[in-house]
Amino acid sequence: MRLFFVGAALLFTTTAAAQSRWTLSTGPEWRPYSAARLWGMRFRAEYDLTKPNSVFGIRLESGARWGPTQSYVFPSFNGSFYGTEQRLDLMLGFNASLTPFPRAPVSPYVSMGVFGRQQWTNGSRFIMGETFSTNIPSTFSKGDIFSSLGVGLRLRLGGRAFQLELRAIEPDIGLTVGTRLPF
Question: Is the pTM of this model over 0.70?
Answer without folding.
Answer: yes
